[in-house]
Amino acid sequence: MMDPVQQEADRLYKAHFGKMVASLLYSFRDIDPETAEDLVHDSFSAALTTWRLQGIPLNPAGWVYKVCRNKTLNQLKKEKRTEALDEHTLAGSAEMRFSESVLDDQSLKLLFACAHPDLSPKVQVVITLKYVANLKVEAIAGSLAMTIDGVDKLLLRARQKIKDEKILLEEPATPALSARLSSVHKVIYLIFNEGYKSSWGTEILREELCEEALLMNKALLDSALGNKETLALHALMLFSSARFRSRFGASGELIDLENQDRTLWNKELIALGSHYLHQSRSDTVSKYHLEASIACLHCMAESFHTTHWKTIAALYAQLLHGTPNPFIALNHAIALYHAGEKSRAFEILHELQRHPFLGQYYLLNTALGKFHHLEGNDAAAKEYLLKAQRQTNFEKEKEFIQKMIDELGDVAGCQLPVTS
After folding, report:
1. Which of 22, 186, 247, 331 is 20 to 30 A away from residue 366, measured at CA?
2. Which residues pair with 254 in a beta bridge?
3. Are 280 and 292 a contacting pair, CB within 8 Å?
4. Per the database record, which ranges form the DUF6596 domain (predicted)?
C-alpha cells in the first residue's frame, strides 16, 4: 500500500507544481524560471520530511505554498536582493491566502501574466501550458503537433530569455489585458482539448482539465474582458462536455462517435452551449465560432448518418483557410469522406502522412484503416490499423483498434503506398 504522505504529495505535485512556479514568477521580480522550479521542488521535499513526522496539515496545498514563499524570501535575502522587492510585492505575497480554491482563482491572472508581449506567441502558449496548466512536455508536444525535443528546447530558450532580459510575468495594466486575450483564449482551448483527449499518461479523458478550462473561461465571461470569441469558446467546450458519458462503455471501453448512445448526451449542456453560441453572434467569425458550429451540428444530429457532413466539411475548409493546422486538416478529410467526397479525402489523408507529427499520429492511420475497410480493401485496412496500434500508448485505444482489426477477419498483408 502506498505511503499516504507520498500519495498526498504526489497528488499536490501533479495538480499544483506548475501553478506554484508561475505564482513565484508572478509574485517575485528577481526569480527566474529555473530557480522557481528548484524552490518548488525543495518545498515538496520539505513537505515529505515534515509530514512524515508531524502528519499531513489541514490545508496541505497552502502549507507547501507558504513554505515555497518563505524559501524564496530567504534566498533573496541571502543573495541580498530584497531591495528588489518593493512594498507592493511583499504585501501582495504576504497577504495571499493559501488555499486550493484561491489557487484556482489565481489561474486567470497567471494566464494573462504568461501572455507577455516580449515572448513569441508560441512561447507564451508553451510556458502557460507548462506552468499554469501543469502539463507534461509530452502532453504539450501532442497538443501543438511538436516533437518532445522541440518543446524541451523551446522551454530552455524561454527560461533563458526571461532570465537574461528580466521579463516580469506580472498582471498587466487593465488597458493591456485585451491585447493578451487572444493568447489566453488559445491556452484555455488547448487545456480543454488535452483534458478531452489526453495525449500523455494513462487516462484518455481528464475531466479536471476540462473543468478548469471551463471555470477560467467563465471567469473571463463574468469579467469585463470576455468578448464574442470567449462566448463561442464556451459554447464549444459545453458541446464537447455534453458527450463525456457516451465516450466509454460499461467496461471502460472506447466508443467512437458513430456508435455512441446519443440518449446519454447531456441535453442541458447542449442547450446551454446553443445559448452561448447564439450570444456569440458577431460580424467577425473566429475559429471558435466555426468549431462551436461544427460541434453544434454533431450534437443536433439524430444519428451519425444523418449528420450534415457537407456543412461540417465546408466549415472545416473555412477553418483551414484562416488557421492552417494538421489536426483540422485530418478532421476535414474525415468530414469529406462522410460527405461523399472520398477521393479528395484520401488525397488529404495521404498528404498528411508526410507531416512530421501527423505521420506518427495513430488517428490518421486509424482513419485510413477504417476508410479502406469501408471501400472493401481489408488488406490495406489491416496494415494501417496495425500501424496505428503501434503509435498509441493508451491501452484502451490499442484495444479499440484491435477490435477493428478483428472485425476484418483473416486477410493477407499488402504493400502500403509510399508516402515519404
Report:
1. 186
2. 248
3. yes
4. 180-280
Residue 58 CA to residue 51 CA, distance in Å, equals 11
Q: Is 145 left (phi over 0), alpha (psi -120 to 50) or beta?
A: left
Half-sphere exposure of 287 (CA within 13 A, CB side): 12
Stated pTM of the model: 0.81
As a whole number of angstroms, the distance between CA 361 and CA 390 comes to 10
228, three cell numbers? 464574442
Q: Which amino acid is at 173?
A: A
CA-derived radius of gyration, the chain: 24
Q: Which three cell numbers stand for residue 111?
A: 494566464
Residue in 329, 231, 331 with CA at minimum distance from that of residue 284: 231
Cell matching residue 187: 491556452
Integer angstrom CA distances of residue 275 from 223, 231, 241, 280, 369: 19, 9, 15, 9, 38
Mean pLDDT within 175-199: 91
Give the pLDDT confidence of 14-53 residue by residue, as tens digits.
878 878 887 887 777 677 778 888 999 899 999 999 998 8
Helices (H), 115-180: 121-131, 137-144, 148-164, 174-177
Cα 153–chain centre separation: 20
Residues in the chain: 420
What is d(CA 342, CA 347) in angstroms, rounded to the nearest whole number?
Answer: 9
Amino acid at 202: T
H runs (alpha helix) in 55-206: 60-78, 87-95, 100-114, 121-131, 137-144, 148-164, 174-177, 181-196
**Residue 312 CB partners (closer than 8 Å, separation 6+):** 294, 297, 298, 335, 339
- The C-alpha atoms of residue 170 and residue 160 are separated, in whole angstroms, by 18
Give residue-wise pLDDT tens across range 97-109: 333 433 344 678 8
